[in-house]
Amino acid sequence: MLGLDLDFDQAKNVALLAAVACVIGAVAAIWIFKSIVQKVLIALLFLLLGYAAWSQREALQDCASKVQASIEIVTGTTVPTDATAPVDTTVPADVATDVAQLDTSCTFFGIDIPIP
């Protein structure tokens, strides 16, 4: 393991920044390299890396949505998206046990990301 402790939002931001950096790198490679073959190969490499980062970001978002839906099914309640909404924190013991048994983490380039 790489020893990186990322939360869900940080992982999404890292993927977005990596995708943008790869597109910028592809444009820079086209501008800097002299040979057409070099330009095409380096630009293609950067674009493939950017696509990989973007697809991992989408997969992370899909996994987080599935985790949230699983928790909603087990608890029978909808998780509020508004941070100012009051939340009832009392959970029956059997529901708490079911939620604790759910897999509430997703992977991002092989790193486990806990989903809040």
Could you describe the 3D structure shown?
By secondary structure, the protein is mainly α. The chain is 64% helix and 7% strand. Helix 1 packs antiparallel against helix 2. The protein has a two-stranded antiparallel ribbon with strand order 1-2. It is built from three helices and two strands. The mean pLDDT is 75.
Strand runs, count: 2
Largest sheet: 2 strands, antiparallel
Q: Report mean pLDDT, rounded to a whole number.
A: 75
| Assembly category | single chain
Shape: elongated
Give the termini separation. 21 Å
Using only CA atoms, what is the Rg?
20 Å
Fill in the keyword field for this structure.
single chain; about 120 residues; mainly alpha; two-stranded antiparallel sheet
Provide a brief overview of the structure.
This protein is mostly helical.
Describe the secondary structure blueprint for this structure:
Layout (H helix, E strand, L loop, with lengths): L7 H25 L3 H40 L17 H9 L3 E4 L2 E4 L2
Antiparallel strand pairs: 1-2
Helix pairs in contact: 1-2
